[in-house]
Specification:
Mean pLDDT: 82
Number of strands: 0
CATH topology: 3 helical TM bundles of succinate and fumarate reductases
Order of helices and strands: HHHHHHHHHHH
Shape: globular
Strand content: under 5%
CATH architecture: Up-down Bundle
Helix content: over 70%
CATH class: Mainly Alpha
């Protein structure tokens, strides 16, 4: 844990420019979206036990605080998608990976992100009920801009918070301890066997990332801007999954979203564990636990999608 805090502090204090910010936010956004996905799979699984338990837990997604968290989720989804698209372009078109072009692409990506996120975040918050801070333009703008400023706030907190001597940064060198953290990451990556399996994982992450831009953002758009979270309950699932014409399509859509999002996210978690956990035993334990959680969540999600046949 000390090594993890040490490396995280060093990375956040290191002045690596736009590229470092893009990488750090991409990883944090991906892990945040994965955490929400695990919670969402669990609550959908409860639909298999009937309407009462499922409807009783829907308070998790209603109210102003939940809407703020959902706006944070939109931030993570949208940023991760756009930055991932830039990374895919860099992988398959080497000219995009040049330093100058990459920097320009980061700024273009940021501009597109702001153009999409600011109005979407505003609408999500403004559409709340009036007794939940809804229909309040000042509140909606303040929260939306606050979420955008969150990365800068986190860096400021790391810069101002004293670091324990046992994990003190090497400030005499002028670059903090970022190089040490970077060397650790490179060393951990060098131990990975770059075989066909690793190549297939890399390719899967790129293909699934492209698919998820459509699947995940499409799902979010439908649930929050077309149907409305406040209108969702057990009957909504019945109408969607058991529709005689589109029910099979929606089940297939949700199954594809479940599979690609969960496996994509767990591979991302694997890289994070291998980058920051240097104790071999602990690393193997965390990777094993991640695999077990992935299998359990896939089974839970697939079970409710395939077996859901509720009749009123």
């Amino acid at each position: 844990m000390a090594a993890l805090i040490h490396t995280a502090s060093s990375v956040l204090r290191y002045r690596g420019g736009a590229g470092q910010w893009a990488w750090a936010i991409h990883r944090a956004a991906g892990l945040g979206v994965l955490a929400f996905l695990l919670l969402h799979i669990f609550d959908i699984f409860l639909a298999a036990f009937g309407p009462h338990l499922f409807n009783d837990l829907l308070f998790l997604y209603k109210g102003w605080f939940a809407r703020v968290l959902e706006t944070l989720l939109l931030f993570g989804l949208l940023y991760h998608a756009l930055n991932g698209l830039r990374l895919i372009l860099m992988d398959f078109f080497p000219i995009v990976a040049s330093r100058k072009i990459t920097r320009n692409f980061i700024y273009i990506q940021l501009g597109v992100f702001l153009l999409l996120f600011i109005p979407a975040g505003f609408v999500m918050l403004y559409s709340l009920p009036a007794d939940q801070f809804g229909q309040n333009a000042a509140f909606s703008i303040l929260i939306t801009l606050g979420i955008i400023a969150l990365p800068a706030v986190i860096v400021a907190l790391f810069s101002l918070t004293p670091v324990n001597r046992s994990i003190q940064l090497d400030t005499d060198s002028g670059v903090g301890n970022y190089q040490d953290g970077f060397d650790r990451i490179v060393a951990s990556r060098s131990h990975r066997v770059m075989n066909r399996v690793e190549l297939n994982i890399w390719l899967f992450l790129r293909i699934s990332g492209l698919l998820l831009i459509v699947l995940a953002l499409g799902h979010f758009f439908l649930m929050h801007f077309i149907y409305g979270v406040e209108n969702m309950d057990f009957n909504f699932i019945i109408e969607r999954w058991m529709d005689p014409h589109l029910g099979l399509f929606w089940r297939g859509y949700d199954l594809a979203l479940l599979f690609f999002a969960l496996v994509h996210g767990m591979f991302g978690l694997r890289y994070s564990i291998e980058d920051y956990v240097h104790n071999h035993g602990l690393k193997m334990a965390l990777l094993g636990l991640a695999v077990l959680v992935e299998i359990a969540m896939l089974a839970m999600g697939a079970f409710v999608i395939f077996s859901f046949n509720y009749t009123t």
